[in-house]
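Retry 2 of 3 after timeout on previous attempt. Resubmitting structure tokens to design endpoint.
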């Protein structure tokens, strides 16, 4: 659900052999969520199964007709055995992209830019070289991952320096400006003619963030805060800048950084926030993410025309049951339920936040381990495809 086949697969080894963590704590549901809790038993079991398979811990929240259900499974600290927290803050990774796309679409609705503007219109001279041409790439193509631009997180040297093994441990505290990421991407030729195909590229949202700053005449973080976080009361959501720490409450984050040592697990909680930026730097909670996607689908953040554009799918993603609009994923579960949202991955963290189109049923969760358990969709499937009798309790 986090598009690991592309950027995430290049950044973190998600196919590593699973090894059971030293601590296994069964899922615990919040006492204030007792009403309707029986309807989430399948979700609870799916969380426990991933912890049993080796993920250190998972925190999840559901909002539906019965209210709010919170649950955790596993540990937030492998050293002490402390459990995951229901209100943990964590790095949401690419879920940040929906926030950026929302603000750009708000600016379009206000006439401050057009989705068919080119990158060259806003960032003259930046995207050039090796066959790359910002005059042929539109804002729409950036947001839909159809620009053809190379993903800087797929650059082997960048990955070895900042995302893997000793390189990560040495450089995790480095401040990386957005233009460094652009430079890495432009050292490669484009993957295809703009608009012809879909290829998930974090480079697109680095450029989208730069365009947002140029059009809004402020840092990208400011309109995200003023246009989304404050109006929705998302008080637990922040942009880290170049801070290295997670705000509390939070758990530790873990990664398998060394391919040659598949059983080795490193604590990667601290890292410089600038290594994500507009393509994936936001820190949030399950509750805040559910609030965001509920408001988005209910038309509280975008006029109808812009929301329709955001939900309009582009070329095939190559994954059955999933399409991509403008910073927004459309997912069809095995039982036919349609969900809207986004996944996200950072070193030490994988997350998903989704909602039904009517905004009545949200799910957000985070794993504090970034490797693959072999069933990445299990929690979502369990929540939305459980027997109808349980869904209606």
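Retry 2 succeeded. Sequence:
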């Amino acid at each position: 659900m986090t598009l690991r086949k592309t950027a995430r697969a290049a950044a973190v080894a998600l196919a590593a052999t699973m090894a059971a963590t030293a601590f296994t704590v069964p899922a615990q549901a919040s006492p204030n969520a007792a009403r309707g809790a029986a309807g989430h038993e399948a979700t609870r079991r799916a969380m426990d199964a991933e912890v049993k398979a080796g993920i250190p811990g998972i925190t999840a929240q559901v909002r539906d007709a019965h209210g709010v259900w919170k649950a955790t499974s596993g540990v937030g600290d492998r050293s002490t055995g402390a459990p995951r927290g229901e209100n943990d803050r964590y790095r949401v990774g690419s879920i940040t992209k929906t926030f950026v796309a929302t603000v750009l679409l708000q600016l379009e609705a206000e006439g401050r830019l057009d989705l068919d503007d080119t990158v060259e219109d806003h960032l003259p001279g930046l995207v050039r070289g090796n066959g790359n041409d910002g005059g042929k790439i539109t804002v729409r193509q950036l947001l839909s991952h159809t620009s053809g631009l190379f993903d800087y997180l797929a650059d082997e040297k960048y990955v070895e320096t900042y995302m893997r093994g000793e390189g990560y441990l040495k450089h995790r505290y480095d401040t990386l400006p957005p233009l460094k990421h652009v430079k890495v991407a432009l050292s490669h030729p484009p993957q295809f003619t703009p608009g012809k195909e879909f290829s998930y590229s974090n480079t697109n949202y680095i450029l989208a963030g730069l365009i947002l700053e140029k059009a809004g005449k402020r840092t990208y973080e400011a309109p995200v805060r003023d246009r989304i976080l404050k109006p929705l009361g998302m008080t637990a959501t922040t942009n880290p800048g170049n801070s290295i720490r997670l705000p509390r409450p939070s758990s530790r984050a873990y990664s398998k950084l060394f391919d040659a040592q598949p059983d080795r697990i490193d604590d990667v909680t601290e890292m410089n926030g600038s290594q994500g930026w507009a393509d994936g730097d936001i820190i949030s909670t399950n509750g805040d993410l559910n609030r965001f996607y509920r408001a988005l689908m209910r038309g509280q953040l975008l006029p109808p025309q812009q929301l329709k554009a955001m939900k309009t799918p582009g070329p095939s993603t190559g994954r059955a049951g999933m399409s991509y609009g403008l910073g927004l994923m459309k997912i069809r579960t095995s039982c036919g339920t349609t969900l809207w949202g986004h996944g996200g991955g950072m070193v030490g963290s994988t997350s998903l936040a989704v909602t039904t189109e009517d905004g009545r049923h949200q799910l957000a969760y985070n794993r504090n381990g970034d490797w693959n358990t072999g069933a990445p969709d299990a929690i979502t499937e369990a929540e939305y495809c459980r027997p109808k009798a349980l869904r209606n309790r």
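Attempt log closed. Residues 202-216 form the longest helix (15 residues).
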